Amino acid sequence: MTRQTILIAGPTASGKSALALRMAKEMGGVIVNADSMQVYDILNLLTARPAADDLKVVPHYLYGHVPPALAYSTGGWFADVEQLLGRQEISQMPIVFVGGTGLYFRALLGGLSAMPEIPAEIRAYWRRQDAEHGAAQLHAILTEKDPLAAATLRPSDSQRIVRALEVFAASGRSIIDWQKETGRSLIDPGATRKIVIDPDRAWLGERIALRFRTMMTSGAVQEVAELLSLNLPSELPAMRAIGVKEIADVIEGRSSVEEAANRAIIATRQYAKRQMTWFRNQLGDDWERLAYPD
User: What pLDDT does residue 59 have?
Assistant: First the structure.
């Protein structure tokens, strides 16, 4: 018997977690996180992880299970999901995957190629180079080492440039070559209900602003202070979560609360716009598109 599986994708603050909770409760199922920021410990409020009351309604998995000192990857998430799906206690339960990270859904459906393991020292080196020299200089280096990959990336896209350099350094092969290799699916795409929330931008923008201002008064400042106390390298993904730098400026006296909130709200809206563009361009006609999660 095929497990009942639902995928719910959508931009930040679109209400996808509430929809997942309602559907999982109705089915007697479980929820699995598919958001690359919600995997990190400490940043509970700032990454909008499900509230404690929601966690009591149905089982939630892969939330806050990664120390912020680690650079978690799509491959790491894929391996964690594979292990989770094999657990006896949930083997027959319906499952809802919910999140805003498109590559996680692509991996889940078999559309993400296998990538080489990146040694920690290689990852740390290129992230340090990015922090010290910036995306444009790293793009020039990538052009020399892997011109095929460089030609596909914007010179300002530091995250993907660093990823391409890591892959080349670890394997000696272009990331483009790796991407051509077919991945394997962990679920049956044909038997899976796929939903993407594509909301009105004005409505979403208002929700983003309200949510971030609520975070600022509900403990997000304390979360960032705890994160900063670990003295982690600034290039780590957890340190790049939207709101971390802005709140750090408040804590260290470089910004007012209002200025920081405004900057973080703008950054979150821009991020949501990128998410929506990715979902529209990358998710096929087999995905149901909802304007609102209700």
Answer: 97
Q: Could you tell me the fold of the domain covering 5-113+183-200+276-290? A: Rossmann fold (3.40.50)
CATH class of 120-179: mainly alpha
Q: Is 134 exposed, middle or buried (0-12, 13-18, 19+ CB in 10 A)?
A: middle
Q: What is the mean pLDDT of residues 204-213?
A: 97
60 and 29 Cβ atoms separated by less than 8 Å: no
- The span from the CA of 148 to the CA of 68, in Å, is 32
CA distances from 142 to 56, 135, 151, 179 (A): 47, 10, 9, 17
- Report how far apart, in Å, the C-alpha atoms of 269 and of each of 82, 202, 211, 281 are: 32, 10, 12, 18
8 A C-beta contact, residue 35 and residue 73: no
Q: Does domain 201-274 have CATH number 3.40.50.720?
A: no
* pTM, entire model: 0.83
| DSSP codes of every residue in 26-39 | HHT-EEEE--SSTT
Q: Count of H helices and E strands in the chain?
A: 13, 6
